[in-house]
Amino acid sequence: MKASDLFVQALESEGVVYVFGIPGEENIDLLESIRTSSQLKLILTRHEQAAGFMAATMGRLTGRTGVALSTLGPGATNFVTAAAYAQLGAMPVLFITGQKPVRKSKQGQFQVIDSVAMFTPLTKYARQIVSGNNVAVRVREAFKQAERERPGAVHLELPEDIAAEQVADEDAETLPAVNNRRPIAEEKAIYVAVEMISAARKPVLVVGAGSNRKQASKMLTKFVSLFGIPFIPTQMGKGVIDERHASYVGTAALSANDYIHAAVDDADLIINVGHDVIEKPPFIMRHHDQRRVLHINFSPAAVDEVYFPHHEVVGDIANAIWQINQQLVPQDHWDFSAFQKARELTTTHTQVNADASNSPLFPQRIVHDVRDALGDDDIIALDNGMYKLWFSRYYRAHRPNTVLLDNALATMGAGLPSAIAAKLVHPERQVVAVVGDGGFMMNSQELETAVRLKLHLIVLLINDNAFGMIKWKQADHGFPNFGMDCSNPDFVQYARSYGAHGYRVDQADDLSRFLSATLAAGEGVHLIEVPVDYSENTRVFSEELKLGQTKH
């Protein structure tokens, strides 16, 4: 068989169904092998970056490696942002790129760059396949590396002549997929952790990005239910524990000094589960700090000047929490009053202007109406912008991986592609892409992809005709507005030009009405443009950052 056929069979044996991307001349053999596969489905996108975002989201939601395909040169370079997105966000994904023939020059150096060297610092594993006889080995190793904790991006380059060559019979077999086994924490480490939690007066649980993987939700939910210890998720830890739980304090969405961070400062023990240094830190450790930190994660802590935990429990998170649940006993001296006060303050902020009839809409009203329209298992895919801060702070997540946001690379343009992938993984759920006008315009062409795939998808486009996050930061620093404002197309007509449906919110009540109607439609791509009034940024966030510590 051809090496490209073996490559496809290797993907099939790994359980791959979707391949996202834009093929080119240099991977025409691989494209033909995909066409004749009874299992693989090519999802043709309109930009390689969007394909990478889709494949990464596939990996994030399933735990299995997503796959993205491009040609050489500009196709490969268009994967760079998506590779960084997956690597920093711990999403398993394989990037496959083409290349000119390597055994004999075909067109000199036309379009040729060293893709492997380019991907090496952005991935866990990057290799060129130099012989059809080692296709099976390279693919198996790539998938193993992608899915091993901490998950991330991998890259394989398949040159044109290698893809077309015949594979020796003895090498024309795929290797069986083997699940990675995670070690469990040692008994002594669990014992010390239990002693630390028992001795603390004001323990708090911080739930990080790593907890949103590998079924940790059940054990962590049991932990807070058994012991009543308050919990604070990071942005990428949202939904691991149902945020309607009485022990939920709020989400660590800002950088410091707000009500949530003030509550963490009051703790004498931070039980830090699934911490990922890539995320904006939910707390900063200082030398001579009286707080103690307990690190529970798949891997040891990456120690630096702001994170140096006092004890580490290293191993499968769910198993570690299960062991702690078996041994820990509630303590009468635990004092959760500071966390309860922080919860009350953030709840009050959540309710302010949640029913305001202003137009343009206040962010609180937008968050409220979206949460009210969606069920427990429905998914929102957030792009990056000012609205992400509002949603991560005030949108209560009920299930793991139902709030898809990027607090690692924090790249714009990922929201719509992520929503498309989420709908492919979970066609039975409602999926809403929440995007700003800036981020949407970076990959808005993928509306055509969603329409072509006949997806039922809602795109909530929050429009301030500006790059709102930086505009707020600029004002908060006392600088005049400069370089942040832009003009936009008629988004309603823009959506309709792709074959999608378009709506514009003119008054506050329109949003809930449009959401109800489009979610109930059961088919079609629907874009809802929502003009937003970001004057609340200053009242809620800027003032809270200045006064949160004092009020707390």
Characteristic key phrases:
6-stranded parallel sheet, globular, 552 residues, 15% strand, 17 strands, alpha/beta, single chain
Description:
The protein is α/β, with parallel strands linked by helices and 552 residues long. The protein is built from 22 helices and 17 strands. A six-stranded parallel beta sheet has the order 2-1-3-4-6-5, with helices on both faces. The chain has a six-stranded parallel beta sheet with strand order 13-12-14-15-17-16, with helices on both faces. Helix 15 links the parallel strand 12 and strand 13. The longest helix is centred in the last third of the chain and has 16 residues. The radius of gyration is 24 Å and the shape is globular. The model has no long low-confidence stretch (mean pLDDT 92).
Strand content: 15-25%
Sketch the major β-sheet.
Answer: 6 strands, parallel
**Sequence of strands across the biggest β-sheet:** 2-1-3-4-6-5
Dominant shape: globular
Number of separate strands: 17
User: What integer is the average pLDDT?
Assistant: 92
Discrete helix count:
22
Radius of gyration: 24 Å
Helix percent band:
25-40%
Parts with pLDDT < 50 across at least 5 consecutive residues: none
Structural class: alpha/beta
Terminal Cα separation, in Å? 69 Å
